[in-house]
Protein 1
Amino acid sequence: MERSLFSTLIRGLVGITTLGSLAFVGPAPGSPSSFPPSHSEGSWRLLDPVTYENISIFPVVSSTSQDTSSFLTLDEGLSSGEVMVSEQGSAGLARTRDAQARVAPNNNASPSVTQLVLINRSKRPLLLLAGELVSGGKQDRIIGKDRIIAPGAEPLPLDVFCVEHGRWSSGSQFAASKTIVHPSVREQAAVKQSQSDVWDAVRAGSTASMGVAMNTSTQVAAAPRLNSRSIQDTIASVAPTQSYAKIYEGSRVGTSVEEFVAQLQKRFGKSTANLKGEHVVGVVVAYGGEVAWSDIFASGDLFDHYWSKLLRSYAVEALARPTLREVASADDARGFLRRLDGREVQQNEPGVYRWREISEGRLSMIELDALRPTTITLHRLLLQRTS
């Protein structure tokens, strides 16, 4: 029985490794995308910014919304037990003959910092976003790339990055953390795909340059509240394993973050309270006068699910950047709604999802399309790279 379960796991690993080889360079600059998105930038409207200290958040609204109710999120799946994540190695995941998942021995695989094993035993496709944190196992990890896991898929390797540098011990199972790391860390995972840079960003707070921030305004920039010294003090006192959750959610740093979030949430709620026939589907985020980031979803429901942890991540980034009380222009923010024209790389799992990244100068855009039941661009991330 164990031999059969191990063979099933290996078939899943081989299948997904083959998928990884399908990445290729897409259309040349200036040519249209081979797969035009299922949405139109013209259907999005930018509201006036919600501002507080050094951050401006422009709500993105739309009168149209895709049906995304068939998709399962990571938090929902881990909380309900329909999704299981485990270390590779002696406590690997396997699927039994009745299509249920259980922990089974797998002595031929060694635990890996950058790879976990996941099984989706729900009846819905599972949506994963780069930067989502899963806690537990030998180290806390974050998802490395946006992707979709089909329902009933074989146990498969999941590319991740560690955000807890100083621990490699204890259990094999992971739990929902309801956390997404802040943009500087998320950029290193989603775009740069570098473990060492992820660790550096966790410890530094922000990868944005103080000099760059100073050059965007004639104002004098106040030092960030979450500077490298305050983060190192937190690590020394309450987060010796450099756990992301303990650094940025603990009492020393977390109190400042929560106060910041409360102010932003109050202002954002007031700004979007009286929409008629439109739904908030995303945001464009600026720090000082620099537009830096956007997250846009296929539906208002999907945005609502992720909003609280996205807002917290933006707040952490704001606190870790110099304080410039300058509001970015609406024209600059609106530029983050356009489609980039540059080098394109794509990755596909036929019948499940399509992932693509387009780079243009310092801008990077990542789009995730679900291919069933209809083609939908579930998530669109556009960022100005800091490194």
Note: Confidence is low (pLDDT under 50) at residues 1-39, 90-107, 211-217.
Protein 2
Amino acid sequence: MSDTNANPILRRDFLEGLGKLSLGSVAAGSLGTAAANGRQRQAQKQWKPVSSRKVRVGIVGYGVCRFGAAFGFQDHPNVDVVAVSDLIPDRRSGLMKACRCDKSYDSLEELVKDKKIEAVFVATDAPSHARHCIDVLKHGKHVMTAVPAVFGSVEQADQLVETVKSTGLKYMMAETSCYRPDCYAMRRTYQAGGFGKLIYSEGEYYHFHSRQIGSFKNWRVGLPPLWYPTHSTAYYVGVTGGRFISVSCRGYNAGIASYAPGANKYNNPFTDEVALFKTTEGGSSRMLMCKGVNKLVVERGRVFGEKGWMDGTEYHGVAANLPDLIRPPLPPGVSGGGHGGSHGYLSNEFIMSIIEDREPLVNAYEALAMTVPGIIAHQSALKDGETLAVPQYERSKA
């Protein structure tokens, strides 16, 4: 039997599954039937290649969670992994082996100079995401980054979007909730008019702080919860393409040692944050990130509109003739991977955006619309729930 505690990725997905089962939101019989029907319908679909082109990719960051190799770039038929990098030599070697790549660099700063590389997956520490992506873009390469897009800084957000504008290159944030089966189905339903405007939506990311996941320079220790908001906020922005325009947020301290006064470098007292946003549709959206709810590790969302609602992958409402809500097939050999089978879909979306020369699903504007509201929410929590305006990021109409 495998040891889920030895591998943070496996452990996270295992606990997430237990959390979902314990919630009892769907009867076991109907859940099993729906899943079986979904697998059958997906199996009947066939992936169809659109090009024989291979995008030359560099991957940076293996880390404790081995994230650099977790999105399956090395298995994609339209990808050639040219080189990898990690600052720590044994992790660099592990990433080379996992990606079946025989070339490596000591750092991202060296890798981005390789003129053979067209695109880079940045799976480094969260505080470095914006800086690293800007460096990649300025070296003339497309970039996909792990979440969040920026780390607690609106100034970083402004710098990132200006770099994306000036280079004209592809930028994508790999927000996993966007390709979870439920969020995908919600987005398709919304685009088909199945909800009308959303009156209310919820996004929840619970990650019980049973033990501290290791992190480069301990960046996770005492992290303000909603500086890591996108697993939740995707359940509005990633469904509708809408925006949060203001927020009131409340914080809570569940008594975890690293959140005691003076115990973390962020001066953050909150283990849990629950935010209520006003949306551009005039509705309300409750988004949270909680570490203090014992034994709960899960990411989930619900949406409620004028014409119908969804809690999971099943639509309840008045709309007829909705499109297929089952995710399309992945290329042969590419696994859906972790976080609800979303990893393979994210790498495929990024690569296809390059090959097809189009915007990726979670481009810079969508990424910042998911990330920056969490930064403002934390500011609100520190001000005892004061309502604050959320900065807006939109592509110029000109």
Note: The domain at 176-315+362-389 is CATH 3.30.360.10 (Dihydrodipicolinate Reductase; domain 2).
Protein 3
Amino acid sequence: MRSEDYVILSNDSATLVMMWLRLGRPVPPMDHDIFFSISQTPDAAGQVPTENEMFEHYFQQLECADRLGFGVGWIAQAHLSTETQKSNSRPVVPHWQGEVGLCTDFPQLAMESFRRTKSIEIGSAVVSILASGGPIAQAERIANTLQLHGLNPNEHRKLHVGFSAGRFEFMARPYGIVPRNAVEEAAWPALRGQIFMEAGDIFLRLLRGDVVNSSHTYETILTRNNFRSDEDWKKVQDAAVEFEGLNSAPEEIHIPRRYVFEDLKIVPSHFRRGLLELVAGTHDPRAQTFLNSVLPVKVFNLSITKPEVIEATHARMSEVFHPDGGAWQRSDMPRTSFVFLNAEDGLTLEQQSTAAHQEAKAALGAYWNALEGTIDPSKVSNAANNALIGNVEEVAQQMIERFHPEDRIMAWFDFFNHDSDRVCRDMEAYMEQVVPLVEARLNR
């Protein structure tokens, strides 16, 4: 039973739970997914596993997640060496130690992941459609993956394709995603989002089965609305006046398309589209709305997203979600959460709590230090506040207080932790102790 079956006047979780119980309805269980970073970084002791060890750990944890009943295993995708980019003239993450991620070909890893498991579904978090050849090449890869995955008529597990422009800009630069002139240089922070819209249009229409011609794809027209301040917009206008020899500042600036091509269609074209779920890694309302004009596209939520943004996103998506996807559900937006759970034997509840907080402090501190200069400090605080930290009792209570009963939690256990056996124990404690305790409390 979904909440829209009742007249709900509040988004408050406690209010919703009480209404279910008064109607004699059990509170539906939250959905629980898991995130795998496969991030080859130094642990607290400074040790860095080999690439082979990283993938061995991934498959151990994936198979554990499959046995425990996690819904979707989301795999981080990255491209190119993070260490090497530190020597570039404009490094994006100059302080990062190690490699941000080792999954550089999601389709291949997804197929191997399906082969090794029975029930868990697989997702990307996220594929950059600007890198690795751009949206056309990425659409072909996804189509081929679905064709092979769907050859078994009894296969019903879905491939969840999370896609975005990619957070780390250096990964797309070698593929031509750089400013082409002075106007684009001045507009770049806003323009990169527009390139994603153009690429997203191509990517989705090709996966839909369309014949696509770039003369009819998304056109970028910059206006004041694309920029955070009048000052930022004026810099772009001034660049346009100089570059194009204009007599006055333009109110609109037309940007030539990034992808230019005649009619094309990807093959295979008759893969089982019912096995495909699309999820956009963007909180830009315009992008969310535009992408859903093509196909049903869900959205990701980061651990650093503020509650008001989450609720605004749900309200918007309820209005703009493509009708082919059905009615928008809260579970359509996975909510990433760091999990620092300690249920280790031989420790008291207080000792488990203390250890969990120490583990969280060390891991989060290392992460934010690695990302120095790339993220708003206020978001750092939000991330710590949103993390699930403590013993079983504490994590269960935090989950009840912070999440809506219909949310989908994407739990992140391997965060700067290369003790794979311990990660699996934490996953087991989460699904076998925390989740039942949450469900019991919500229904009492």
Note: The first helix runs from residue 13 to 22.
